[in-house]
Design a protein that fits this description.
The chain is about 40% helix and about 20% strand. With about 425 residues, it is α+β, with helices and mostly antiparallel strands. It is globular.
Length: about 425
């Protein structure tokens, strides 16, 4: 792929590897691979076990070595390798220096194919997690976050918070079985390597450690049938927790979740422009906000759920007035659209971010991985500056009308215990 500076190879087991040599950092190589799937593929009764598979293996070690033994073996080497497991995708990621890349690939191979089974390490892990869960249940921000998620996902099983009772559902054998099922099948993985690498030096190492990964004929991996949905109508809720005299409010709307690249780009830029407007309005009108942020959230490659969010902090007595003002401003924004100045500012910030990113290994790795996960053309990375030029106040206004429905949103506020909601 000459335009991208990428060389691709296909190994004898069918695994693809993409390599992008860079000179951004002379001591860094980073890599990743992921496919659709993740915890969404297991039955609901097994979800708790599967969701801790990564931690259970990390605690037990790989290749017959405990984590302490592995650290001793790799002393002096700058490498890091870990499974990557989420709700809707899974894979592996790692980092290394050029001289330690073979050790990193060896660790990758062991991590994917030879997880240990150590009951004693499982008990230690569960004790640590139980202590964390108990402490978290006393944290006002955690209580607020759990309630926010519960409302906005209609208490979907995949998003329910951990409790001391739900910890009892974890079965280490089921966790290890899930881990082996997804990690011992590299057939649909595409590995991306970015950094100070030499292609000709890499190829024999890839043949040895990636080309020997096991594969199956199970067909392309898929996201499980999750059926997430946002609540209908308008929901308002106050969570009273903690003593600090401050408040946090989150206003959330359902968003279109189809994975059209330009639509997603326009949606994200629209939220950037709205944030610029709200910061100015709230600072001038109220002068008492602790900060306001606007964002667009989605869960690739799952295309059934996405949201737009406005979150702000304030004094408890001002939370309600600020929510009203924000909703009024969004209504005005939908009717009139953004100003030329607001659009120009957002475009300038976006251009700086892309130009900076194109000179960073992490940006390239994340971009290639996401594009691959969604099945998009990798050459679109180079078109990101061009698409900024297509944005105008008129196009943003047109897009903004499609979002932030006035009859469907939630307003969830965190208040101190002693306050009057």
């Amino acid at each position: 792929l000459p335009d991208l500076g990428i060389t691709t190879v296909e190994l004898s087991n069918g695994v693809e590897v993409w390599m992008k040599p860079t000179n951004f950092k002379n001591d860094q190589i980073i890599f990743a691979a992921s496919v659709p799937g993740g915890f969404s593929t297991v039955p609901e009764d097994d979800f708790r076990s599967a969701s801790l598979a990564n931690q259970i293996v990390s605690e037990a070690g790989v290749g017959g070595l405990t984590p302490v033994e592995l650290d001793k073996l790799l002393a002096g080497k700058l490498i890091g390798v870990s499974p990557s497991m989420g709700l809707f995708s899974h894979g592996i990621r790692g980092s290394s220096t050029p001289k330690d890349i073979e050790s990193a690939l060896q660790a990758m191979y062991l991590t994917m194919t030879q997880p240990n089974k150590r009951p004693e390490s499982f008990e230690v892990l569960m004790e640590r997690i139980e202590a964390f869960v108990k402490n978290r249940s006393l944290d006002p921000n955690a209580i607020y976050s759990d309630r926010l998620t519960e409302i906005n996902t209609k208490n979907h099983p995949l998003f329910r918070p951990w409790t001391t009772e739900s910890l009892k559902e974890v079965d280490p054998d089921k966790a290890l079985a899930f881990y082996n099922k997804i990690m011992r099948d590299a057939g649909d993985l595409r590995f991306y390597f970015v950094g100070a690498l030499d292609v000709e030096t890499m190829i024999p190492l890839l043949e040895t450690y990636v080309g020997s990964l096991p594969t199956t004929d199970n067909g392309p991996p898929k996201v499980g049938k999750v059926r997430m949905e946002f609540p209908g109508g308008i929901t308002k809720n106050v969570v009273q927790a903690g003593q600090e005299p401050k408040s946090t409010t989150t206003i959330t709307w359902p968003a279109r979740a189809s994975y059209d690249e330009m639509e997603m780009f326009n949606m994200r830029l629209a939220t950037d422009i709205l944030e610029i407007r709200l910061r100015e309005v709230l600072r001038e009108a109220l002068g008492n906000t602790y900060g306001v942020g606007v964002g667009y959230s989605y869960m690739p490659p799952y295309d059934g759920y996405a949201t737009t969010v406005v979150r702000y902090g304030s004094a408890p007595e001002n939370a309600s007035d600020m929510a009203k003002r924000i909703l009024e401003e969004i209504k005005k924004f939908k009717a009139e659209g953004p100003t030329e100045e607001e659009v120009a500012k957002a475009k300038e910030l976006e251009q700086r971010a892309v130009e900076k990113g194109l000179e960073e290994n992490g940006y390239w790795l994340a971009s290639l991985q996401t594009l691959g996960l969604l099945g998009w053309d990798a050459n679109r990375v180079l078109a990101r500056l061009d698409r900024i030029d297509e944005v105008s106040a008129e196009s943003m206004h047109k897009n903004f009308k499609l979002y932030f429905p006035e009859d469907n949103y939630t307003v969830i506020t965190l208040m101190p215990k002693e306050s009057t909601p």
